[in-house]
Amino acid sequence: MSILLPYPMRLALDLAIEAAAHGEVPVGAVVMRGDDVIAAAANRMSGGTDPTAHAEIEAIRVASARIGSQRLEHCDLYVTLEPCAMCAGAISHARLRRLYYGADDPKGGAVAYGPRFFAQPTCHHRPEVYGGIGEIESADLLRGFFAARR
What we know:
About 35% of the residues lie in helices and about 20% in strands.
């Protein structure tokens, strides 16, 4: 079922679908500055030897290189799954303005679940957070991916 979604989340879902086709956990991420796509990436962990190759990290790396700065203060991140602690830390360090994510991740998430990274007093930058954007499609994609592997 395709629900009308903001373009960046639709793009992130399309990247997640491509990732699944390559055997990667289906997560996609897009960095936007205004109406411009600055970076778009999917998980790449299984295809390489980099355990940090989460979609969010990959998109932040590309965006920072493209902008020429480690600070992405005027940028927003769209990702299909609630970020883990590593990715939440990268989002904070990059100073992303807003985080939009699809499905909650009760096991590995660190925004609404787990350590609730942005609520910690040691977190120096807290983006605005909007969860549940494309939640149904994101969750269905992840469930289908893992069901096929069991």
